[in-house]
Amino acid sequence: MLELDTVTAGYDRRAPVFRGASLTVSPGESVGLLGPSGCGKSTLARVAALLHRPDSGRLVLDGTEVRAWRHRAPREQRTAVGVVFQQPRTAADPRLTLADLIAEPLRATGRRAEAAGRLAALAPAVGLTPDLLARRPHEVSDGQLQRACLARALVLRPRWLICDEMTAMLDASTTAALVAAVETYRAETGAGLLAVGHDRVLLRRWCDRTVDWKECLPVGRTP
Amino acid sequence: MADPRTHRPRLWSSAATVGVLLLAVLLVPPLVQLDEQAVDLSRKLLPPSWEHPFGTDDLGRDLLLRCVYGLRISLLVGLVAALVATVVGTAVGAAAGALGGWTDRTLMRLVDAFSSVPHLLLGIFVVALFRPGVWPVIASVAVTHWLSTARIVRSEVLSLRTRPFVDAAVSGGATRWRVAVRHLLPAVLPQAGLAAVLMVPHAMWHESALSFLGLGLPSHQASLGNLVQNARSSLLTGHWWPTLFPGLLLILPTLAIAGLAGVWRDRLNPRRRSELTL
Amino acid sequence: MNAANGKVLRALEAVTAERAEDALLSVRGLTVRFRLRGGRGVAAVTDADFDLAAGECLALVGESGCGKSVLASALLGLLPGNAETSGTALLAGASTDAATRGAGAGPDATDLLAADEKTLARTVRGRRVGLVPQSPAAHLTPVRTVRAQLEETVRALTAVPRRARREAAEAAAGRAAFPAGHLDRYPHELSGGLAQRAATALALIGDARLLLADEPTTGLDRDLVDRTVGELRRHVDEGRGLLLITHDLAAAERVADRVAVMYAGRIVELAPAHRFFGPIGPRHPYARGLLDALPERRFTPIPGMPPELSDLPEGCAFAPRCPRATALCATRPEPRAGVACHHPEDARA
């Protein structure tokens, strides 16, 4: 289970982006979180990925309450959640080749030896060819870079996947290809998914269920 | 503006100037084996001629030779001081930016404290602690020059730290140290390198200022600052060349290095890259 | 002849005629090449042909990296120095009456590809071609109010006397549906939708008859996309021509009269929007695949990835991904009836 329980979060304690948001994703389930831009759904996604410490509220991941965030969180907990962001350009270190970008989490966790094998398995799964893997981010298109970012999120085999507007910048065919890659991974591993976005048609088609941002907030409260 | 071709003339003239000056200071002293200190009072204050292209000074020493030696000392001081200042500044700035919190506050107060004392005064204080020589001057220039680099690097690191690629690294299990060393530091090195190159002429001017005030290198040693200092009395008697040539040699590398740094800065400019992205 | 009839007729003509008589913009053989280090070349746009009439919206759609943004930059003369362009892009003259004189025949028509930077800066950008930018927030100056920026643009682009500038700025804001009450705000105080309208208002000040919108809906949420697109449509209905560059097929469906599909730098299909999105559907297999990838349709990606623009095949660039490809596809298909394909698909059953 991934449980977000009455979470209040933001970038200024006096004026949080939202108060008391709750959302639960069951193991293996895919949930689409719908909301207009600027409502705070991306901040909630960052909380769920242990990347943003909430002002109050609880995050329970597979039965364990999360008590530390970012670098301070235990590595096992952090790497149990894979994240894909909206803009591949800013989410990729411009100095790394796509192959290094995908393998970076393995290197960071001392599992360098697995890099070649995982790369060989993941690259075709996300539709990347060997010549693309040798390139740097500025030499590939947004769609190709986002494919690499998805592979990076999957390389440590996370039990949870969080996709924050993963396809907002992409064309229809690349969108369908990335969603298919995510679903293939989930079918193999049984991982749960939280997909955040504003495209109702897309999330309805993609996910088991969709939740409106308003439904996450306590009744009578506006963000 | 973004066209690399428009850089060509600037790049070549600057590179050629720097190249000729470097060759001169590296090759002339070991090859010609003349004593730049050789006094010949029968030939004092001769105007520029074929024999002495830069003329001679009030002790009859060849000014071209002394200028080359002076430039050598000044460049050495400038390069070493800029290198030391950049390493210190980058380390402090990166630590403050990447670690944040308590470390950041302490380091930045230190930077403020150093900045609150006028540059030259602090420099004079440092040289005054030691006997005159090359190393005290380098230390003095380095101590006063790492501050701006520390600020530049810190602000760069701060802006990079909130980028999603850092989030992605954290989510991928990277430690704080790994994020700093593998993702943040490489991103600021080009900026720090640019700051270092721009600092070289600045450090040379600083050395000259200290020497001109009589606080830098021993006055018999030919540095550009000392040459200008020694030439003061001659200038009053209408002998312009002992002042002009060392002065030009101070300005020329400054312009050339600024030209090179300008080209470098435009290369760093991300706009050029994005325009090529289709 | 009433206005609606006229529009339909014009749209039909534009599809069939060799060079539409009343085209606002007439592009023929537009080709852009980039020279890269090491002698490599990138064929960003190849032989693009299209016309755009007043009161018409042409949507240029395709995947990111297919060359559509380069095409827009070429029309505005905003390509980097290592780009080489050829072909013509005739923009109808400012004083030309579209009903009587065509762009091709107009004596004061401007070839955007041949014009020098001075001409483009002084007489074209803003005055005859308005640009609706991709990220309005980045397009506005953060330290000045919307009113100040509008008035400055009025001063730069029009001969409106000083006293009337305030009024002209407010009128421009009104045309873009920017609320007058927000004129004294700074860009960071505006929501995404209002920033988009402010940028559109700036684009409308010069009263350009041709609008060029480069991915105006990227990153906006669906409601805002609908509103932005609706407003763009309104400007088209007022008689402007709109070249909409987008990867968002849903947005294109809402606003376009005609759709041009770009693949690997070439326009592979040019079709009326109602046919393209309607039951008949596109005829080029790539266009059909792109449409079928939509979540409201089959949600199936086109297999493979687009080819490198620096390494295009001799024949049809889509053949390696195409289910209908045969040996014939090793030769390049010439566009016929708006479709560049050896084996175009029939109308859908």
Q: Can you put this structure into words, describing what you see?
A:
Chain A: This is ABC transporter. Chain A: It comes from Streptomyces viridochromogenes. The complex is a heterotrimer of chains A (223), B (278) and C (349). Chain A has 223 residues and is of the alpha/beta class. Chain A has ten helices and nine strands. Chain A has helices at 41-48, 75-79, 88-91, 98-108, 115-126, 130-133, 142-154, 172-189, 200-206, 213-216; strands spanning 2-9, 18-25, 30-34, 56-61, 64-65, 81-84, 160-164, 192-197, 209-212. In chain A, a hairpin with a 2-residue loop joins β4 (56-61) and β5. In chain A, α5 crosses α7 and α7 (142-154) packs parallel to α8 (172-189). The mean pLDDT of chain A is 92. Chain B has helices at residues 8-32, 63-99, 101-116, 119-128, 134-161, 164-171, 176-212, 224-236, 241-268, 270-276. Residues 1-5 and 270-278 of chain B have low confidence and may be disordered. In chain B, α1 packs across α2, α2 packs parallel to α5 and α7 packs antiparallel against α9. Chain C folds into two domains: 3-128 and 209-312, P-loop containing nucleotide triphosphate hydrolases (Rossmann fold, 3-Layer(aba) Sandwich); 129-207, no CATH class. Chain C is built from eleven helices and ten strands. Chains in contact: A-B, A-C, B-C.
Q: What characteristics describe this protein?
A:
heterotrimer, A: 223 residues, alpha/beta, Rossmann fold, 5-stranded parallel beta sheet, 4-stranded antiparallel beta sheet, 10 helices, 39% helix, 22% strand, globular, C: 349 residues, 6-stranded mixed beta sheet, 11 helices, 20% strand, transport (chain A), AAA+_ATPase (chain A), ABC_transp_ATP-bind (chain A)
Can you lay out the helices and strands and say which pair or pack?
The complex is a heterotrimer of chains A (223), B (278) and C (349).
Chain A lengths: L1 E8 L8 E8 L4 E5 L6 H8 L7 E6 L2 E2 L9 H5 L1 E4 L3 H4 L6 H11 L6 H12 L3 H4 L8 H13 L5 E5 L7 H18 L2 E6 L2 H7 L2 E4 H4 L7
Parallel strand pairs in A: 3-8, 3-9, 6-7, 7-8
Antiparallel strand pairs in A: 1-2, 1-4, 4-5
Helix pairs in contact in A: 4-5, 4-7, 5-7, 7-8
Chain B lengths: L7 H25 L30 H37 L1 H16 L2 H10 L5 H28 L2 H8 L4 H37 L11 H13 L4 H28 L1 H7 L2
Helix pairs in contact in B: 1-2, 1-9, 2-3, 2-5, 2-7, 2-8, 2-9, 3-5, 4-5, 5-7, 7-8, 7-9, 8-9
Chain C lengths: L2 H14 L6 E13 L5 E13 L3 E5 L6 H9 L6 E9 L18 E2 L5 H8 L4 E4 L3 H4 L6 H12 L7 H11 L16 H14 L4 E5 L7 H16 L3 E6 L2 H7 L2 E6 L2 E7 H5 L7 H8 L57
Parallel strand pairs in C: 3-8, 3-9, 6-7, 7-8
Antiparallel strand pairs in C: 1-2, 1-4, 4-5, 9-10
